[in-house]
């Protein structure tokens, strides 16, 4: 079927008081696993390609993007394509021609005024191209001159009043907020600040996004969606599943050299994890 729109999926999820699952992909096996897991669960999904993934692929966006588009168009469930954590304006401008319907523009490392200005310019350009745009707001440094914290640095928290002003000043369509999750966690021990999330949800008029969701226990994800999170980003959990399955296969088959043998095991493990996570989010709305 034709590519879905991230914005439309998020809007529908928000109306139903649930969340869309968005998975970061690095290889063709990731793409196939995410779609297989979503098809097994019978629900829509977002494929995300990050700037770091593009760097891994020798800085070339199109090979992975075209594979994602081709796989998505053959899926039996709606699949959207999202360009994630974009810091390069050059990469941002490649998004429409590569098949992406949405982007996450990441200027959260900058001081607040610079983040707002850069994100405003990115949002204006994205909207002119018909792109849905997400941004990120971490914690701004205090009056003592401390630098801003990255949105997912340990201890970073997004201020509700500042989040409201940032959304109004940038015109973004969704906001990723810092409430206690951290990128690249391999253990599910993150403790979210659900009280802060409720205040952010009340202050901000656009959908809220949770990054670093791999480190959040199931009950934390459930409570986050109830509290206002509408898009749940997952990346590391897939890599943990894939790597664990491949390690197990190679330990049991030390003679193996055909990469298809262990990659298929890794792909299936990722597909199962995709279905499991979607199942958690589906139970919320059920």
Question: Can you describe this structure?
Answer:
The protein has 286 residues and is α/β, with parallel strands linked by helices. The protein has 11 helices and 8 strands. An 8-stranded parallel barrel has the order 1-2-3-4-5-6-7-8, surrounded by 9 helices. Strand 7, helix 9 (218-227) and strand 8 (229-234) form a beta-alpha-beta unit. Mean pLDDT is 90; it is low at 139-147.
Notable traits:
286 residues, alpha/beta, eight-stranded parallel barrel, 11 helices, globular
Summarize the structure.
With 286 residues, the protein is an alpha/beta fold. It has eleven helices and eight strands.
Biggest sheet strand order reads 1-2-3-4-5-6-7-8
Indicate the radius of gyration in whole angstroms.
18 Å
Class per helix and strand makeup = alpha/beta
How many strands in all?
A: 8
Helix percentage range: 40-55%
What is the molecular shape?
globular
Portion in beta strands: 5-15%
Low-confidence stretches: 139-147
The average pLDDT score comes to 90
Profile the largest sheet.
Answer: 8 strands, parallel, barrel
Spatial separation of the terminal alpha carbons: 26 Å
Please provide the ordered H/E string of secondary-structure elements.
Answer: HEHEHHEHEHEHEHEHEHH
Q: Helical element count? A: 11
């Amino acid at each position: 079927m034709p590519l879905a729109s991230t914005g439309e999926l998020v809007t529908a999820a928000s109306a139903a008081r649930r969340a869309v699952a968005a998975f970061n992909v690095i290889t063709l096996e990731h793409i196939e696993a995410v779609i297989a897991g979503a098809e097994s669960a019978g629900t829509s999904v977002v494929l995300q390609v990050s700037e770091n993934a593009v760097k891994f692929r020798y800085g070339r966006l199109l090979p992975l993007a075209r594979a994602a588009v081709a796989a998505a168009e053959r899926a039996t469930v709606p699949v959207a394509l999202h360009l994630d954590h974009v810091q390069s304006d050059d990469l941002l401008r490649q998004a429409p021609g590569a098949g992406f319907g949405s982007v996450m523009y990441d200027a959260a490392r900058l001081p607040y005024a610079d983040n707002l200005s850069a994100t405003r310019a990115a949002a204006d350009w994205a909207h002119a191209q018909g792109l849905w745009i997400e941004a990120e707001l971490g914690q701004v440094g205090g009056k003592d001159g401390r630098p801003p914290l990255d949105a997912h640095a340990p201890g970073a928290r997004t201020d509700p009043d500042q989040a409201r002003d940032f959304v109004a000043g940038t015109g973004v369509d969704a906001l990723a907020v810092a409430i206690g999750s951290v990128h690249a966690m391999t253990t599910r021990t993150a403790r979210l600040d659900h009280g802060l999330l409720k205040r952010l949800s009340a202050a901000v008029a656009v959908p809220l996004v949770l990054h670093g969701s791999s480190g959040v226990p199931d009950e934390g994800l459930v409570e986050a969606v109830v509290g206002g999170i509408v898009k749940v980003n997952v990346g590391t959990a897939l890599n943990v599943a894939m790597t664990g399955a491949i390690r197990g296969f190679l330990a049991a088959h030390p003679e193996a050299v055909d990469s298809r043998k262990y990659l298929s095991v890794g792909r299936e493990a990722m597909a199962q994890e995709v279905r499991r996570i979607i199942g958690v989010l589906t139970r919320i709305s059920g």
